Amino acid sequence: MTTDQFRTLGHELIDFIADYRDNIADYPVLSQVEPGEIAGQLNATPPEHGEDLSGLVEDLRSMIAPGLTHWQSPNFFAYFSANASLPSVLGELVSAGFGVQGMLWATSPAATEVETVMMDWLVDLCGLPGGFHSSSNGGGVMLDSASSAVLTSMVAARYRAVGHRSAPELRAYTSNQAHSSVLKGMRVAGFADEQLRSIDVDAEFAMRSDLLAEAMTQDVADGYVPFFVVGTVGTTSSTAIDPIAEIATIATEHGAWIHVDAAFAGSAAVAPELRPRVNSGLEAVDSYSFNPHKWLLTNFDAAAYWVADQHSLTSAMAIVPEYLKNAATESGQVIDYRDWMVPLGRRFRALKLWMVIRWYGAEGLRAFVRDHVAIAQELSGWVDEHSSFERLSPTPFSLVCFAHVEGDDRTQEIVEAINAAGTHYVTHTVLNGRYTLRVAIGSVTTDRTHVEALWRDIVALG
Amino acid sequence: MTTDQFRTLGHELIDFIADYRDNIADYPVLSQVEPGEIAGQLNATPPEHGEDLSGLVEDLRSMIAPGLTHWQSPNFFAYFSANASLPSVLGELVSAGFGVQGMLWATSPAATEVETVMMDWLVDLCGLPGGFHSSSNGGGVMLDSASSAVLTSMVAARYRAVGHRSAPELRAYTSNQAHSSVLKGMRVAGFADEQLRSIDVDAEFAMRSDLLAEAMTQDVADGYVPFFVVGTVGTTSSTAIDPIAEIATIATEHGAWIHVDAAFAGSAAVAPELRPRVNSGLEAVDSYSFNPHKWLLTNFDAAAYWVADQHSLTSAMAIVPEYLKNAATESGQVIDYRDWMVPLGRRFRALKLWMVIRWYGAEGLRAFVRDHVAIAQELSGWVDEHSSFERLSPTPFSLVCFAHVEGDDRTQEIVEAINAAGTHYVTHTVLNGRYTLRVAIGSVTTDRTHVEALWRDIVALG
What we know:
15 helices; homodimer; Aspartate Aminotransferase, domain 2
C-alpha cells in the first residue's frame, strides 16, 4: 500500500468511524445475529489475489456492524463500560502508525518515557500515594488488563515470600465478591484452588476484615503461610468497597503482599470528593491497578498498574538474554518495562492516554465521572421510590443494582425483554442469591436522557 | 470531541502518518536521545484545562519522533521486525473506532467469528495441519504475544497432567537456544528454575533429540514427571530449527504436551517451498504459535495460537462467574475466547488481519516473505565470500548471523559504529561464545538496496 493509497483509504475510514459513532443509536445495542451468521458471510478460504479494499467500508457497514454489540452506544449499560473516546481512538491510530516496540527503553525511548510521565500524571490526577510516583521507590506501568495486574502481583508476592518455586504452603485471600481473575490468576500461577481463601462479606458486599484476620490466624496455626491478599474497590457485581486500610493492617502483620483491584472504580478518584471511597488505605498497599479503558475515556487496552517497590516486581520478572542486552539497560539509568510484566513485546500505549488527558484536561475528566455518578444517584432514587423495584446494594459510584419485588423470574424477564428490544443493553448478576439487574453507567456519550429512557422502559415492563 | 472535530484531526493524523512513513529514512533508525530527554519535554503534571490538540502533530514531529527507534524503517535490521503495514494500521484504527470487547461471543459476535475465520485462513495460507482448523477438535485464537502462548500452553499442560496444583515433580524441557519467555513462563506459572531442563543443541543450534530422550528417561527414573516440551522453529539468536517430529515422538511417549514456538519463522510457511522447514512434525504437537506481528505485515499485537484439542485449553482456563453467564454461552454453539487465554478483555484483533490478507492476497504474502529470504541468501553469500567475515549459523529464513574474523571486540565495534551512525540498526547475540552480528531482514519496505547499503557500511568498517 503506498502512502497515497493509505491517505485515501485512511480518510475514508476516519469518516466511516465518525458516521458509525453518529448513527450508533440506530443499531440494536446487543447484536441480534445468530451463531455462525457473520462467519457465514466471509469466504471460507483466503483470497489468492489482493484487492484494493474499495469495498471495505461497505463490508464494515453491512457485514461487520450488525454483528457488533455496540459498546460505544450511549445506551450500553452492561458489564462495565469500555470507553473508547474519539481522542483515544486517534491515539491508537498514531501508535499503530509509528509501529514501535516499547519492550526496552532502547527500543523506543519515547514509548517508555511518555508512559512513565503518564503514570505519574495519573498519580496526580487521582490523588494516589506519592509512593507510586516514579520519583519514589515505586512506579507505574500500563498493562493490558486488570487480570494481568492481579497475576503479576501474585507472582511478585510469591517471589518475595519464597522465591520461584512450587509452594503448596502459601495461602491467598480475597472476598467472595472479587473478580474471577483472582481465581484464574491462582490457577495460571500454579496454585490449587484451596490455596485461595474466599472471605465472606458484610451486608454491603464488602470484605469482612474480622473474618480475614481470623482466616489468616487460623492458617498460620495450621502451618500455612499467608502471602497475598486482594482487596477490591468497586466489585464487579455491585461496586462494593473493601476496607483497604483494615485489610492492609491485618495483611502486613503476616507479611502478605496487598494488591488492590479498582478496575472500574479507580477512575472515580479524579474527582476529589470521591477519593475517600477509592483511595483510603492505598498508602499501605504493595500494588494497585485500575483501568482507564473502563471509565477514563481511553480505549482498550489500557490498564494502569503501580507498585510501591519497583524492585519487588523487577526482581521477580526480569530475565535478560544476550540478544536484549544494551548499553542503556546496563547504565541503570532507564526503565525497561519488559521487566514489569508477563509479555515481552509492548505497544506505545501511553500515547492515547497523553492525547485523552490533553484533550479533556483534569477538569473534563472530573466532569465526566461526576456526571455519571450523579445520574446513578438519581436512578437509585427512582428505584427506591418505585413500589415494584428494590435496590439490592449501595450506589457508591455509577452502577445501580436492583430487582423486581416479585422475584427472580420477573427480573430476568425484564432483562431479557430490554435486550431483545435492542434499544438498551443491560446485564445481570446475583446478589444474596437474588437475580439482579445491573445498570452500569459509564459510556462516553451517555447522559441523563439515556438513563431516563432506560428507566421508562424498565418501569413499563415492570 | 465531536465527530466533526474527529474528522478534522483524524484526517490530519492520517496525513501525518503517511508523511512519517514517507520520510522515515531521514531519522537515525536507533533513537539517539539520552535518558530523560523525552520526559523532560513533557509537563511534570497533567493540564487542568483541556486543549484542542491543534499543536499535536507538531509535538509528535518535534518531541516524540526523535525519541522513537524506527521499527518501520526499511533500514531496521535489529531483533526481529515488527511489521506494521499500512493496511494493518487502518485495521487497528477501525478496531479502536468500533471499541468493542470480544471476551464473549455475545459481547460482539463479529469479533469472535471473524477471528475464528481468520485463524482458519492462516491454517490454509500456511498449510498447517487440519487438526488446528476450527472444523476439527482444535482451533486458533489471537493472543498478544508468543510469550503468552507459551505460558498458556504450560498452564494447560500442567492441568492435563495433574490438575490445578503446585507440582514440584513436574519437569519441562526446551533447548538452550529457546526464547527467554519459556523460563519466564515457568516462573510465572509457579515452577522452580530447576524444573526446566535446558537441552543442548547441535552444530546448527537445533535441539539434540537424543539428549532430550536421555533427559526425560533419566528424570522418570529419578521420580520426576515430564509434562511439557517447547520446540522452536526459528530461534531468536539464529533462527535454528528444532527437529519437531523427533521431539514429538519422544515427548508423546512420556505423555508430555508439545508446544512449538515459531514466533518469527512461522510466517515463512505462506511460501509452500519453505513449509518443510516450518511445518514438519506439527501434526503431532499439542499447540503452535507464530506472530503475524513479526513478519506477516500485521501490526503488534497479533500472535496466532492454535491447539489440537480445544477442550484441553478451555478446561484449564474457563471460569464463568454469574455476571458473564448468557444464553449463547449456555447453548454450547459459540466460542468464548476469554476461555482460551489469561486476560479477560480482548480487542477486535482479527479485523486488521482480515484487511491485511485481503489487501495482499496469498500471492502478495508469499512474495513478501520470499523476497526477504532471497535477499538473506544473497547476503549470506557475500559474507561467505568476504575474507574478513565469517558466518556463524545457517540461514534458513531471513536472519544472517556473522562475525569479524578478528574476534569479538572487532565485531562489537562494528555493531556500535553502525548504530551510532544511525543509517541502519542492527543488534547482536552470542553464538558458541562468540559475539555475533545479527542482520534480521523483515521490515515492510526493506528491499535489496537497503541490505546492499548495510553490507557496504559493514565492509567499510570491517
